Fold this sequence. Notes:
By secondary structure, this protein is α/β, with parallel strands linked by helices. The protein is built from eleven helices and six strands. It has helices at 21-34, 41-48, 53-64, 72-87, 94-100, 113-123, 126-129, 147-155, 170-178, 192-198, 207-213, and strands at residues 8-11, 105-109, 133-135, 163-167, 182-186, 202-204. The chain has a six-stranded parallel beta sheet, sandwiched between helices.
Amino acid sequence: xxxxxxxxxxxxxxxxxxxxxxxxxxxxxxxxxxxxxxxxxxxxxxxxxxxxxxxxxxxxxxxxxxxxxxxxxxxxxxxxxxxxxxxxxxxxxxxxxxxxxxxxxxxxxxxxxxxxxxxxxxxxxxxxxxxxxxxxxxxxxxxxxxxxxxxxxxxxxxxxxxxxxxxxxxxxxxxxxxxxxxxxxxxxxxxxxxxxxxxxxxxxxxxxxxxxxxxx
Length: 216
């Protein structure tokens, strides 16, 4: 059970609204291998899921002991935008959830607004959130810091305590709880236990379960 009734819903984007994680992980893994960093899918998820690109670059440099080439980020973004625009689909059940939602909402993501336009546009979800996209690139610290969620609450003039965050990464759950917000963990690519350990109030396996929790 949630500790109180939410008044505002904040969706993460990748892995919650759009099924982009398998695509981005594949391409990111290929580019990491090009830097000599070969990780299992589980290691890659645990290290990088839910983090901003700046944080990812710093972590790559820690793991490799070398500077990341200046071309790495622009090349990755060029590749990923192209593939996402061609392949990404909505997370199963999320379109029905978004259509049925009566509470005000927004998206708060570690990705750029440009990337959100690509993925939400491709999946038909952009009209539900156009003008309501918040990116961690606009704050000092990405997830697991609470900055992006607090910015969302400030931008839409809502009390953080009334916000419900829907997240698929432990970093995102940690950020939501640090912001004083409620959080439902969606166990898509991430094991449910990891989301619970990070502090999610509830963990679900299907987006239809979120609709039931919100009595839609």
